[in-house]
Amino acid sequence: MTAPSIDIALFTSDQARAIDRRATDEAGMPGYELMNRAAASAFAMLRRRWPAARRLRVVCGTGNNGGDGYLVARDARASGCEVVLFALGEPRPGSDAERARRDFEKAGGVVHPWGPPTEPADVIVDAIYGTGLNRAPEGVAKAAIEAMGTEGAPILALDVPSGVSADTGACPGVAVRAEATACFIVHKRGLHTHQGERAGAIELFDLGVPASLRGTPDAHLLQPATLPPRPRDAHKGTNGHVLVIGGDHGTGGAARMAAEAAARTGAGLVSVATREENVLAMNAARPELMARGVDGPQTLAPLLDKASVLALGPGLGQAAWGHALWTTALDANLPTVLDADGLNLLHAEPRDLPGRLVITPHPGEAGRLLDRSTADVQDDRFAAARELARRFRATVVLKGNGSLVATPQGAVFVCPWGNPGMASGGMGDTLTGIIAGLLAQGCDATEAACLGVGLHARAADVAARAGERGLLAGDLLEPLRRLLNGRED
Ligand SMILES: NC(=O)C1=CN([C@@H]2O[C@H](COP(=O)(O)OP(=O)(O)OC[C@H]3O[C@@H](n4cnc5c(N)ncnc54)[C@H](OP(=O)(O)O)[C@@H]3O)[C@@H](O)[C@H]2O)[C@@H](O)CC1
Ligand SMILES: Nc1ncnc2c1ncn2[C@@H]1O[C@H](COP(=O)(O)OP(=O)(O)O)[C@@H](O)[C@H]1O
Ligand SMILES: [K+]
Question: What residues bind AMP, as annotated (predicted)?
């Protein structure tokens, strides 16, 4: 199967700092030279994006992110812009930022202490915090960030939108929402998940730092991928048999959606083991699915014998019926996607798991599995996904804006697609079915999770062209089929 081609590397702040140090020590690129290049790149980006902008406001913090800001302000003045620069404090003596401030002043620039702006600006440059953010902004920084958010002028963030953690995408307090961010040297992983979307459109400038100094990235962005065309002699037996197990009283729809998604992803056969009461409706609405009523392990066993992949959990419930099916299904040791109540049952009853396993928790389910709050998971999604992958020896999909795929070996892939229209019931069930359908066609757990998460979110983006509100999980199926067959961008 084609694995996604992975070529956008993401780094932590610590890694970015180490690369900065290596650039200075090993490549003879002093920090101040890099700061000048950062400012020149950011100002060129500003000119490109807002060619008519004449009045700029630059808000500088006390660290090197502020230093970048002073030099953007200097360059902007030199090219004829009106610049009003606010400083939130004094740079550390002897720092590159202090030197940048002196250079700005030497060139005739005036530094104002922070105060509510009276002049309108065409563009605001956010140079308060970059990779150095280590707590919630308070005092003047908080006031400045809040003021930026109320003005309506577009914001260009330098390196990181201030207030967003470059490592996790979490915001400990107030944070800038930028229209665009000029990212320096390497992509910061936190700008691609959770609240990292506050960065807006990201442009990366490597500042001439050689790629050889980067070292091993912490994570990668997923790239668009599809399955290769089927061989001419393919038959349904060569494309696997997915068995969806779920659909307790009142939640038959979850199992049906997972099953239909598996079929639309190209699984050769799809069966559903569910409550008897769901069977008639399922078979009538989608006759290609083979829905069977099961009342316990005995009636499930023959279906397990025929299946090659399980999708275990959609609408399963946690009562005796669901628990009995869950135990029997996991004992079968088939390649499995475990979701929803399948995960909640695992939290209640730790046990041996199949060797080829993908688990797909949303942050709430991830929190339960790790005995942590949802907020704790969101505070560091990378750490939570890795911890789950290690603990359960499974490929983990941690869902939510910027879904993560983590492998037991510690690799992490970040999904750059998806939209808030996906916050609607059944989206997770659809993802479960897609991943199961890919496993059935021969993908390994990580390929299936990466490809499945990407196809699901890209299909949702295509479907959301008609509007995010009102997007239904079922709307994904048509674009999913086209994307899977390489027919849609
Ligand atoms: N060669 C290089 O290194 C290059 C670096 N470059 C640029 O430098 C940026 C990193 O600079 P930086 O390390 O000085 O950190 P920065 O983000 O400016 O923060 C400064 C200090 O603020 C503080 N602080 C943090 N949070 C706070 C809060 N909530 N409220 C109050 N204070 C808070 C904290 O200090 P503390 O108060 O904890 O001592 C922190 O150290 C990077 O993103 C890029 O833009 C580019 O020029 C390219 C070359
Ligand atoms: N704001 C969002 N941005 C991107 N993706 C989202 C967003 N909200 C939800 N999703 C995606 O939609 C799916 C929702 O899954 P889940 O919460 O399990 O839903 P359900 O249980 O209703 O099926 C996940 O794949 C998640 O990543
Ligand atoms: K910034």
Answer: 399-403, 428
